[in-house]
Amino acid sequence: MITHEPIAPTSPPPKASTLRRAAARGLGQLLRRPTSLLGLIIVSIFIFIAVFGPLIAPYRYDALIRGAARQPPSVEYPFGTDRLSRDVFSRVLWGARDIIGLPTITTALSVLFGTCIGLFIGYYGGWVDDVVSRIMDGLLAIPALVLAMVMLGTIGSSPIGIVIVITLLYTPIVARVVRSVTLGIRANGYIEAAKLRGEHTAFILFREILPGVLPALVVEAALRFSYAIFLTASLGFLGLGVQPPSPDWGRMVNEARDSYSQTPWALWFPAGAIALLVIGVNLLSDGLRRVFRYEGQLG
User: Fold this and answer.
1) Which of 95, 93, 91, 71 is nearest to 81 (CA)?
2) What SS3 state is found at 158?
3) Residue among 202, 205, 228 nearest 285 (CA)
4) Which three-class secondary structure state does DSSP give residue 189?
5) Average pLDDT for residues 91-109, to the nearest whole number?
6) What pTM does this model have?
7) Is pLDDT of 152 > 50?
8) Which pairs count as long-range contacts for 264-269, CB under 8 Å and 24+ apart, including other chains?
9) Is the peptide bond before 245 cis (omega within 30 degrees of 0)?
10) What is the tens place of the pLDDT at every residue in 161-181?
């Protein structure tokens, strides 16, 4: 008589307590790396500025200070003033909300949609995977900035338009990462066990497969956030970002080019803020990648 033994899970998804211990251990690893810690500090400072910047700023972003045009950096004007006598320090603080808020929203939406699509096509495979993957490859074949310019030229420049465009650009990238990891997980024993138990597809995707995808997804989300910041600033520089009078950092750089010889500080500080923020996010992303690699070795 032939008996069939139940399929034992080969690598079951971690429980909540295990996840908490792994998170605490990963945070400790992150804080012990100087570059990762530096990235975390930089990102935290910019998030603080984005939330409380308007309260800290001594002037409104559009306030014209009488008799203070083209003032160099000083105690009264830490970042100087531009050719229109606006305080650059205040404008940088006010502009942090858009340069961080919009990429945060687009990254969250890209991760959400990309995760759902990647889990679905990676789990089912077959013709569904082929069709969706070819559509995504077609979108990825066009340079992101060019496609963004075309889309914004069609739907118009606005915060909502920027969110829609960047989300459409980055969702296929996240989906490909999730699909790749899902293909390696779906053949594990605990997935087969869930099927034999009669679990619903949604349960298998989000309770069995998703925990195994999270490490790669967190790192990819950090990378997408970095690219979204740079793309948002680039669109602002080209005049397709948040429209005046909002103090978009990219637009501030563009406006300061014509008067660079007279007010170079009006270009230095917004450009430096963009560079510093992107560097901080990249350092943090690299730290997260190392942490998850370390956790994988422990597992």
Assistant:
1) 71
2) coil
3) 228
4) helix
5) 93
6) 0.83
7) yes
8) 265/72, 265/73, 265/79, 265/80, 265/88, 266/80, 266/81, 266/82, 266/83, 266/88, 269/79, 269/80, 269/88, 269/89, 269/92
9) yes
10) 889 999 999 999 999 999 999
